[in-house]
Amino acid sequence: MRAHRTWNLLLSMAVAMLVAMLMRDNLHGTEPVPVRSVIELTSPKGGNYDLFLDTGEGFRGDRSVRAMVYPSHQTQRIEFTWPLDVRNVRAFRFDPGDTLGDVVLHSFATEGAGGNFRWNATEILNRFGRVHGLETLPQGDDRLVLHVRRDDPWIATSGDISSLIMDVARGPSSIFQWAITLAAACAGFALSFWLLIPFVRWSVRNTTTPAKVIGVILLIDALLFIAVLGISRRIGVRAVGVTFEVQALVPANDIYQLFFSRYAGRFGPEQCVATHVKAAAGPQWLRFELPQDTLPSALRFDPGSRADSLVIYSAAFAHGDEREHIGPSELLNAIDGRHDIRTAQLRNGGLTLRFNGRDPYISLADLFHERMVAVTERDKPFWLPLLFASLLTLLAHAGSLRAARSQEVIGAASPRDLRLVSAFLVLLLLPLFTVFAPSMEIHKESSEKRRLADLPVLELRSLGEFPAQYDKWYRDHFGFRQELFRWNSWTHIKVLKASPMPDRVVMGKDGWFFQYNADVDGDYRGRILYNFTELERIRHIYEARQQWLAAYGIRYYVLVPPLSGNLNREHMDDRFHRVSDSTWLDLVKGHFEKYSTVELIDPREELIAAKKEREVYFRTDIHWNPYGAYFGYCKLIDRIQQDIPAIGPPCTLNDLAIRVDTNEQGDLAGMLGLNDVLPRVEPIMVPLRPRKSVFSHFPELPGQYYFLDRPMTFIQADTTLPKLLMFHDSFGLYLKPLINEHFSKTTYVWAGLFIPDVVVAEKPDVVIQEFMEMFVVNMPKDSLALSP
């Protein structure tokens, strides 16, 4: 009997701990959340409006928030974000500027961590009982006219309203959260100790089913309940009636469009919402209602074609009464592509877009997808997945009790086998426990060089696709994934001496690692990539480009750094048996030398000689190191100097000092999740004299959909030197500081293709195109045309 009560106690304590962790992780955090007061008003004359917050010391300037209101006969929504250190507010004072005229108030709301409250015009009149310099004229529940009569007008609340706004501003206190958590734990303990466990024991004593079978069935019930609850909690709900709202100053009558898509850059005419807009003297709200069951990952906003500028003051996602607000600075940071837009900058409280073409648009980064989901799930109930899991568990339990064959199998199993099966099921479903207690998992950034799958939304129209999409998401996000991935990599590397990701990383000899995929496998083995006809097609592409540039007086050079696995063959795994000594670079370079006027600059000879003194490539990274990049730079500048002597010879090693740094930035080591176990040794090339070239700016260039990073421009004082435009990949990063010194202006564009529109915009004297040997496979596709 004592043993039974001890087991009851331990099981009940486990249930109590689980309930406590679940409650703690579902309650609001204790970090301060900004509080906002939102006023909807109409102001034909506009001005700077202030909201003063009285914390017991009167209305002071350091406890006020200002918002700019633009002249408009349309209703505006202005927001006052409180300082983070202001919470215990006892009174409000609203100052509608010093401009004589009428201001119409429609509503006053305050939002915070603890919820929100909203006053209509009648409630504003009742709450704001102190008036100065104006007259209040009520015109129904949705209109309160403030007739300003003299300077310094304001209205202020009467009495102490701190009790009203305390919960809104502060949210639940930490003591309250702990009290709720403790009460839930106690309830879970009591329910288990006095009801659930005794009921299970009673049911076992009063049934002919063996206790062993009942125990296994109950374990399966518990694991099924946890699994179903975890999965259903992770499934999104339908997004019905999501609206994207933009507050903008519209200068001309036009048609504005919002394109939406699941994938960035893929916008079709059928995925578009349009709205007619009319010019107005002040800002107005434009609303784009997305189709039902639609939560896109990418948006593109097209502001018509009849104006030369647009000012956006704010945006929001709306779903019922819920709103997720987006400020102008957030919009600017979220722009990941633009077209026919000369500048985008913050001015006078808004995001100002200036157009330079007839098809302006901006595409927004998919970070807004999370904001859109948040506004639809803000009040997502916990009881729904709980009910679903309970019903499914009861059905499974009833089925298990009626399955005579299953009971026979369980009854015939030995206790050892049952313990093994039970342990396996627990371990299999352990990742789902992180749904209830995320603190159990050590959260780390993904080390994989790819975008992880997004959580799919359960939509009626895509119900058939949902299982595959959810499976893809779960593979990327299941509990303890990063730690398990790291342990697996460490075991493979340190114990099994093999790559844990043989389809992406090759483990070589002497601590070397090499990039691998289905394409470079052929290069490592010396297989032929192109036949003669395909090589001729490539030659015509690059010769046509050379001739086009020459017509503008621009010289063209192509630099191709070799693959590490080909340059460091002595460290490559022996399983790569070569059918020939020829590489892809040998193949294309040989054809160009024989038939083409375009020269492929190949630095392999210099790199092979240099690595006798020091390694020129990283062991745990696909790239050459700064020391190896120096010899690629020398080869390139030597070749350009033959045509343009003014750029001068490359600097010598005597002009540089080598400082060795050990860091955890190796990309192959990062793919394995072992940056700290497989550190990268980097010989940094430090100039002994100050550099003449300095960073200038990030230029706005066409073709941004092809950019992998922001273009950069460097300049120096000697304007007699030629100007350079360089298209490059990641191998070009270590070349930049060295190449800059030879040109008056250098613009770098990280792109995998040659983009003629960029050349037209930059008007350089020299164009360099650099791509590593692996990207020889892209040469037939490197044929973008000039925009009409």
What does this structure look like?
The chain is α+β, with helices and mostly antiparallel strands. It contains 22 helices and 33 strands. It has a seven-stranded mixed beta sheet with strand order 26-25-33-31-32-30-29. Strands 1, 4, 6, 7, 9 and 10 form a six-stranded antiparallel beta sheet that branches. Strands 12, 15, 17, 18, 20 and 21 form a six-stranded antiparallel beta sheet that branches. It is flat. The protein starts with a helix and ends in an 18-residue tail after the last strand. 30% of the residues are buried. The mean pLDDT is 81.
Characterize the quaternary organization of these chains.
single chain
- Helicity, in percent? 25-40%
Beta fraction = 15-25%
Strand order of the largest sheet: 26-25-33-31-32-30-29
Q: Ends: how far apart?
A: 89 Å
- Supply the number of helical segments: 22
Query: What's the rounded overall pLDDT mean?
Result: 81
Low-pLDDT runs: none
- Report the strand count: 33
Shape: flat
Major sheet attributes: 7 strands, mixed
SS-derived structural category: alpha+beta
- Radius of gyration, Cα only, in angstroms? 34 Å
